[in-house]
Amino acid sequence: MNSDDCRGDSGMDTLHHHICPRNCYDTCSIISTTRHGRLVSIEGNPAHPYTRGKLCPKVMDEIHKVYSPQRIRYPLRQRKRFSGQWERITWDEALETISRKILDLKDKYGTTLPLAHNKYSGNFGILHNALEAFLTGLGPTTRAVGSPCWSAGVEAQVFDFGAFFCSDPLDMEKAKLIWIWGANPAWNAAHQMPIIFRAMDQGAKVICLDTHFSATAARVHQFVRVNPGTDGLLALGLAKIIVDHQLTDPELPDYSLGYNEFIDYLKAEIDLQKCSAVTGVSLETMKELALEYGAVKPACIWAGFGLQRYTNGGQNLRAIDALGALTGNIGRPGGGVQYGHFETWRFAGPLAHSQCGHAQDRELDINQFPQLALAADPPVKMLWIASRNPFQQDGNHAGWQKLSEALELIVVSDLFHTRSSAAADLFLPVTTHYEHWDLHASYWHYYIGINEPAVESVGEARSDLQIAWDLSKRLNQSSPGSSAFPTEGSEKEWVLGAIGPEMLAILGIDSAEELLKGPRRVNYPGTAWQGRQFQTPSGKYEFYAEKAQEWGLPPLPVYRPPRQAPPETPLRLLTPHHLSGLNSQVYLYSEESDSLLKARLHPKTAEGYGLNRGDKAILWNRGGSFPVIIEPDLGIGEGVIVIYQENPPNLKSPHLNLLNLGELTDMGKYATGAYGLALNETFVGIRKTTS
Questions:
Q1: Where in the numbering of this chain does the 4Fe-4S Mo/W bis-MGD-type domain appear (predicted)?
Q2: Number of domains in the chain
Q3: What residues make up the domain containing 187?
Q4: HSE-CB of 273 using CA atoms within 13 angstroms
Q5: Strand boundaries in 195-334, DSSP class E
Q6: CATH, residue 181
Q7: pLDDT digit string (tens) for 27-37?
């Protein structure tokens, strides 16, 4: 990497190293080139052992993002919420408005709890924890906790294994059989596909199990369509076949707890005929899958996030985990059940307090935030939204509208205007990862890397850390001692300081500065749970988890059906990620599009509503309505609509999450602080329209 002075205006081309901060599996290593202090090119870093110089389409237009005319360059104040009447103000004015509101609320209520922060995964860099650290320096505040993304699955694996951990994704190349279950890496984890292809070249068979025929399904040996939300029942049916054919691992009693109880449950409760009818997978296919999985070793299952985004999502993943344990694939190189991990997020330096917050913070479920904030005492009166777009991405849109009416000040820090900034009083422009130092770890691969700035901040944009310093200074000028957070410092030193003794040890380095040479792998074995030593209370893999029972859940993996469609809205809506975007980060810096998203559905479903290819239609439920173009697709099951989040949103038109009513998953509170969002339990009606 370059020195601290990496943003010079020399006429020579200068290279800079970055880590993509988007919330996806790959956390890519990037090399940018600047000329005369301006970003001129971006490419993948060929030296990174996992990402190997390849970038996905989401990154290829990054220069446009940095210099887009739509990017907000200066602090703004909106005259009236939702009016779009923004006026440029100075940073002094913005900081004074925020600090005055904080002090006024503290004076009025005798506490800083009326100040709330709602942040998640728009940028996972450690620098973006600075706002949490700043809030901790004020005293107890209100925080959003949990995840809208993966909570049920995280908790399922914590119950089963004792911790959330997966194998190094490079380990998958050793597998002789790979099941990609509810994931679409061809679009959403591009760097894993070459590893899968290498395994295929070495003779591995790869099967895709999913609710619809995906880009990944088109690239593997076999596709098995599973009815939405029934993945857990299918896994239990396969487990029953494995048990009936005596294909369980002979060493199962040595490393597992409750296997007899689980086997008894399978024999007594799982009917294969019913399993086939409910899941949509034929008995013949079930037997073929089970017998092959029971016999071939090592066999790897990659469980995607989508299959746990149901009201039975945690049980779905616990049942899939059980397949790996029954057959002895857990802890075997090339085997296991891969979902994700927290292990490379063990930052233990000065930023540690920013992640755990103040001991007396008020924590509100991120997926029920508006209704909980409205009921809070003392009331929430100021809200800071960062690295999020809840007015578009959360369920319960009506709740967010109601909360906005009760708040005295809403602050949004972002790059571009969003539906959330439309509700704000103040917009604070922030830097991209090409303009600040940062530190990134993946929840999939094992590498940790430093992100260095390449160019000076565009306009008057400031990093989250700089904003926190500046606001702390302003508060202490107005009311000495009101903020314990620092008022100045070095961005680079702050980021490096986040790497504490524990992280240094697992990286095998003596000082954080060694990371400036490039991303480094943590010193973990390539195979999760190798040696079959687990972190559960028993030290074994737990089919029977007393911890689950303590939290009001069945101790065994059991089948719980997903929600049934209401008669008036009989179609299940699935909204997976597209190749070109990630949630509402769908090239917001491009021109807004008026084109309609395509609603993909089985031809028989379309025919039942008198719909043909290219017809315009309206999806609706009590949350709202959404216009679409009809696209019949044989790869989608009957009664299901699939809409990819694939084109730029027009901020003035309806959005998909109007239809999301905020259903919650069955698990998540123990492991992540809140239940997950059951995004796939969204049901709609459909009608043809000519407008």
A1: 13-70
A2: 2
A3: 167-339
A4: 0
A5: 205-210, 222-225, 256-257, 299-303
A6: 3.40.228.10
A7: 999 999 999 99
